Amino acid sequence: MPAVADIRLKVLLVDDQLSHRAALGAELQAMGHDVVEAGNAEDAVALFTSLRPDAVLMDVEMPGHNGHWAAQQIRRAEPEGWTPILFLSGRVSDADLAEGIECGGDDYLFKPVSPVVLAAKLRAMQRLCSLHRQLTSLTDQLRASNADLQIQSLHDPLTGLTNRRGLDIRLDEELRTARRERQPLTLILCDVDNFKAYNDTAGHLQGDQCLMRIAQLLGETCRRPRDLAARFGGEEFVILMPGTSHSGAMFYAKGLQRMVHQLALPHPASDGKTCVTLSGGITTCVPDGTTTIESLLSRADAALYTAKSLGRDRFFCFETQADSSTGQAELANYDREKSSTATLF
């Protein structure tokens, strides 16, 4: 920050007498400040609103609206700020000074204005301006830091995807929207097959690299604005797809599986598989009043378990009913042979 004495103020000088404005304006410029002039209260308010000066020197007595009226309008124009207003007046009574302060003024300069007093008042304004700029700078830095912290709190540091907290927030939003608009909502829970064996064989650093590459792929496949890829935890990921039907979810899953195969990430220990594969469980429903985040995750988890039990490297999907009373899908109670909506690939 510059030294207080080096701060150049932008001063709005308001006086209906041209000669008074010329004299005071010359003194202000000689002190190193910029001067904007207005000859009446209405012009003063308009200039203040458009230029936002650092200080206002304003005559009280003017034709039409006076300086007190202008001060009130200025205060209304800056509800979150405070620009110093110094009245210029020949009135010296206590009542006149009190009225000016009540209308929004900060101080009085009595006419004729003493150059020494004017210089002292302006130095005080420079100090106020310096403090205001420091406060503004610190406030901006704090806002930026808070925004960064907010982003960090909702994103996984390893993969850059939305984390579990961010997923819960979005799931709640999308669940409410889908319920209100009677639209389908798809949730896919997937994980890297045999990832523990991958870590045990290749090491955790290489395992992190694998997760980062899979996360990048998942993020790239979520192309619609409301689609979301999130890291659920460990090697598990969630794909949230609002407005996606059962058939659309299966089409996406098949494409994702094909892309993972094309990625061809080597897997050092994968039960005969030479490359990294994914298994996933899909659930799609039009939510009703009983549908919860927990029920969606439970159904997707049951479908994922089925995909794992059937040999991995596949996605398993079963249609959920909108009028489900519990929203739960227990694997032990799910008869795959009788379900006409089951799809395995």
Automatic annotation (TrEMBL):
What residue stretches are annotated with the Response regulatory domain? 10-126
Per the UniProt entry, what are the Gene Ontology biological process annotations, in alphabetical order?
cell adhesion involved in single-species biofilm formation; negative regulation of bacterial-type flagellum-dependent cell motility; phosphorelay signal transduction system
State its Enzyme Commission number(s): 2.7.7.65
Q: GGDEF domain: which residues?
A: 183-320
Q: Name one GO molecular function term.
A: diguanylate cyclase activity
Q: Which GO terms describe its cellular component?
A: plasma membrane
PTM-bearing positions, type 4-aspartylphosphate: 59
Catalytic activity annotation: 2 GTP = 3',3'-c-di-GMP + 2 diphosphate
Q: InterPro entries, alphabetically?
A: CheY-like_superfamily (IPR011006), Diguanylate_Cyclase (IPR050469), GGDEF_dom (IPR000160), Nucleotide_cyclase (IPR029787), Rev_trsase/Diguanyl_cyclase (IPR043128), Sig_transdc_resp-reg_receiver (IPR001789)
What keywords are annotated for this sequence in UniProt?
A: Phosphoprotein
Pfam families tied to this protein: GGDEF, Response_reg
Query: Which protein is depicted?
Result: diguanylate cyclase
